[in-house]
Amino acid sequence: MSGGQAIRTDDDDFLIDDEFFADEDEADVHHWRLLVVDDDEAIHTSTRFVLSDFEYRGNSIELLHAYSADEAKDHLRNNDDIAVILLDVVMETDDAGLRLIEFVRNEMDNKDVRIILRTGQPGVAPEWEVITRYDINDYKTKTELTQEKLFTTVTTALRSFEQLFEINNNRRGLEKIMTCAGELMQHRDAEGFISRLGDHLISFLPSNQQALIVARDENDQAIILCGRGDLGNCAGALADQSLPPAVHEMVGKALEEGIPVFDNAHACFHLKTQGKRYLVIYVGLERPLDGTERQLLDVFCANAVIGLDNVDLFQHVRKLAFQDQLTKLGNRSLFLERLRTLINDMDEGDEYLVIDADLDHFDDINDLIGQENGDIVLKDFANHCLGVAASPVVVCRISGDEFGYIFKTGGENAIDLDVASFQKSLYMVSEVEAYAIPLHVTLGITRLNAGNASRATAESIMRNAWLALRRAKDMGRDTFCYYEAEMDEEVQARAELVTDLRKAIDKGELFVHYQPQFCLENDKVSGMEGLMRWRKQDGTVIPPYKFIPEMERSGLIVAAGEWILRECCCQMMRWMEDGWDGVPVSVNVSMHQIFAGDFPETVSQILEETGLPAGMLKLELTESVIMVDVQEAIAIFSQLKQIGVELAIDDFGTGYSSLSYMQQLDVDVLKIDQSFIKHVTERRGDAVIAETIITLAHNFGMKVIAEGVETADHVNILKTLGCDQVQGYYYSKPLEADELIAFVRARADA
């Protein structure tokens, strides 16, 4: 068939009715196809003769001939553009024609083709019965189809086919639009969406396969986002430097005026989203678009705008979900997602270093300069992070003062990373208001490679880096440490230790040792410190340095701290009831206890329940605990002083404090840490520090207790420096309650 047009298949692109609605000069490229089905050769001959000069809308008829129902089926299977069937009822069987109707309508699901039933034996297929039962469009006897009536019948059928085809073609066009829109809606990134947008436009427009999408960049220059066909190599280029003059002119006009621009060979239309994204789409045409195509194109563009808005919305949500809003780096979620991608895409030979970088003592920095200024420091460090190393896979802020790096150190495009140099390069000084804040960084590092990726998860990799970070902190900070498998064993051991501690509190496995304190003026017992100890039911004694830190980390210190406070008060009351006048007993208090919210009430309640006079209880706190929240600490100390207990600052000189707060805290005692006492007779610096603390305390009206006194020389120099009391193994190790009272009585009798 000349003109070879495709009218109908399920896979056809919509808007393909170009030949049905062609201009007059295109009339010779299209014929209307009619299928004549009859077993009588004379009918074929006469039909061919009658319709030889027939035209409809300027297009002639092409006849296809079948002499049986089976031949007709072959024609229908091979030609999906048949507009009209002239069908005989009786052929090889009396109902062959009727069965062919069922084949066309039901099996082929062809509802467009017009069927004109012609019969020479009306009695075999009565008109009313046939029209009622079968989907036919006309019923004629062969004798009544004169030339004029055949012209009329065929013209009516073709007009009906044309109208039905347009309706169905528009429906198919809308269905195609919905399918395309649905597919576009699946894209969550602008690049993928725009690329597929170009593909879809080429697929359903009468395109010459040339298309491109243009937008303005941040410099207001028209840049090509993607191209197809001969324009496919233009992606990323500037429109004014890469496009043919005619195309550039149309694109420029659409961009400048914000209107669609069409001519016989080109179509330019625009998409404008709610997010102010503005795209111009160019498609090269094989022929002009007709009115229906433009209407359907409007529908498609409206759906495309919705899809692009969805992309913008998704990207905004993703930005919120994966970007740290303070530093604008990626956040922990992005870091985990990137790790998952690396694990899934791992090739043999690939290796990555995953680094957890933590700012040392950032909590103290925040306390010093305030959270608002602390945020400025974090932003300064985030900017610094981006510039200190070449080609990281990703840099993210993974928690408050922790930053995550991933470097590729093995495989294609790997870098040679000197970790020690990298760790040192992270050091910086952040200047905020009047402060110059030095930032030291501790690193925890783990390796991800083809050997461990199959059994790794993103979470486990981050955990390993964190375990290495914690080990590095234990090593003294401002350093780095690689993950080792034994760290997992330590974590497991710690978890088991915490479980055992919970049971120990419930089962009464905790007990108290008391270490006496002595007045240097008269060498008498002037006080004692209650020290928590743990003996398991099997008799195993767990050293305090092993379980006290785990109590602090797990929060069990609150319950255990209340227990030892109550136990010390009860024990002192038992001694006093047995006839000893007693001395003040000191109990260490943790940060978790102090800021639990009701600590003064707890102390008051214990004193009331045990009957111990408030003046017989001394509470010891470290200076760093106080500095966590100075104003809150001042308020709590004031409440405790109103109760009547004494307050002591433990390990003074080793933590972080401000002398301006000392008087406000109304403290009774400063305790010099044993680290300054150990070499006080050998190092002049330690002696100067001890003397300074003693003088400072006395000037504030406080007494001083020196810890870690182990020799007579320690005692002598501390007497010389004016220290009030001492505590240490020179006098006595920590003792159980029965041993302590025996020790006190023995000294009294001596």
Can you describe this structure?
The chain is an alpha/beta fold and 750 residues long. It has four domains: 24-171, Response regulator (Rossmann fold, 3-Layer(aba) Sandwich), CATH 3.40.50; 186-320, GAF domain (Beta-Lactamase); 332-484, Reverse transcriptase/Diguanylate cyclase domain (Alpha-Beta Plaits); 495-744, EAL domain (TIM Barrel), CATH 3.20.20. 45% of the residues lie in helices and 22% in strands. The chain is built from 26 helices and 27 strands. The strands form five sheets. Strands 19-20-22-23-24-25-26-27 form an eight-stranded mixed β-barrel, surrounded by five helices. The longest helix has 39 residues, at 147-185. The protein is elongated.
- Tell the overall outline: elongated
Low-confidence stretches: 1-29
Reported for the largest beta sheet, the result is:
8 strands, mixed, barrel
**Structural class designation:** alpha/beta
CATH architecture of the largest domain: Alpha-Beta Barrel
- Extended strand count: 27
What is the helix content?
40-55%
CATH fold-level topology of the largest domain:
TIM Barrel
Strands of the widest sheet, in order across it, are 19-20-22-23-24-25-26-27
> What fraction of residues sit in β-strands?
15-25%
Fourth-tier CATH superfamily name of the largest domain: EAL domain
Rounded to an integer, what's the Rg over CA atoms? 46 Å
Distance between the termini: 131 Å
Total discrete domains: 4
What's the helix count? 26
- The average pLDDT score comes to 84
Domain Response regulatory: 33-157
Protein name: Response regulator receiver modulated diguanylate cyclase/phosphodiesterase
InterPro entries: CheY-like_superfamily, Cyclic-di-GMP_PDE-like, DUF3369, EAL_dom, EAL_sf, GGDEF_dom, Nucleotide_cyclase, Rev_trsase/Diguanyl_cyclase
Keywords: Phosphoprotein
